[in-house]
Amino acid sequence: MTRHAVVTTVHPHGMGLAVGSHHLARELARRGWQVLLLADPASLAHALASLASAAPRDRMRAALTGWRTIGPSLSTWTPITLAPLAGRLGAGSPAMLDLWSRMSLPPLAGRLRRQGFGSPDLLVLDGAVQAGLAEALAPRHLVVRMFDHPDGRAGLPEALRQREKALIARADLVAVTAPGLAPVAAAAGARRVHLFENGVDPAAFDGPLPEPADLAVIPRPRVVYAGAIEPWVDQSLVEATARLCPAISFVWIGPQRSPPLGPDAPNVFRLGKKRYEDLPAYLTHCDAGLIPFDRAGYAALVDTVNPLKLYDYAAAGLPVVATPWPELERIGGPVTLAEGAPAFAAALRAVVAAAAPAAAREFARNASWQRRVDGLLDALGLLD
Question: Which of 114, 148, 161, 335 would disulfide-bridge 320, Cβ 3.0–4.6 Å?
Answer without folding.
Answer: 335
